[in-house]
Amino acid sequence: MALPDFATARNMMVDGQIRPNKVTDPRIIAAMRTLPRERFLPADLAARAYSDEDVPLGNGRALMEPMVIARLIQAAELRIGEQVLVAACGTGYGAAVLASCGGAVTAFEEDATLLALARSALTALPAVRLVEGTLAEGCAGAWDIILIEGAIPAIPAAYAKLLKPGTGRLLTVLTGRGRMGQAVIAKPTAEGLATQPIFDCTTPVLPALAKPAVFAF
Predict the structure, then answer these.
(1) Of 77, 81, 109, 166, whose CB count within 10 A is highest?
(2) Is residue 215 a part of any domain in this protein?
(3) What angle do CA 85, 89, 90 make, to 5 degrees?
(4) pTM for the whole thing?
(5) Within a domain: residue 217?
(6) Does position 1 have pLDDT exceeding 70, yes or no?
(7) Cα(132)–Cα(107) distance, rounded to whole angstroms?
(8) Where in the sequence is the domain holding 167, given as residue range(s)?
(9) 166 or 197, higher pLDDT
(10) What would you report as the CA-atom Rg of the chain, rounded to the nearest whole angstrom?
């Protein structure tokens, strides 16, 4: 049986899913052409690495659809060297893209199985610090960018306190009615987080953050 041609599939993903969907940042395009997305999946799911859908990883978790993760990362407008927290990093693909784009990335996860997959996938790839902890509590630090990699009903209070005042921004997908959610960017203000919609999308709700901890503005 012939092995999948992952390099061709990778280029087809970029040219068919990423570039036509308003992703113009050359760093993201280059990273997604280069990073072996199949490594971020268990071997029995590798053939689905470049499909235009979320790939289920079990226990309610998934590898996020390529277009969605690309547009979320682009909306962050990452500057070289910024401190980035990827919460619910799963197997580490989003963290690897951000690191390839020049971020100083910490990937945060509470599922030990997914963290082990991330540790294996990131070998010899862009440097990412992996941290295990409770997602609802967040990861201590003063972050320029926080990416919560999955859908949530509301932004947890703990995460609002982890952003750098004035310049920090948080990206995630907020759940809506029915299946459709909305990718958002949230920035700290004197009154709390100010949240703006970016685009509509669907992605699985993160089980660990399924209950809203605080309303989002």
Answers:
(1) 109
(2) no
(3) 170
(4) 0.94
(5) no
(6) no
(7) 8
(8) 6-209
(9) 197
(10) 16
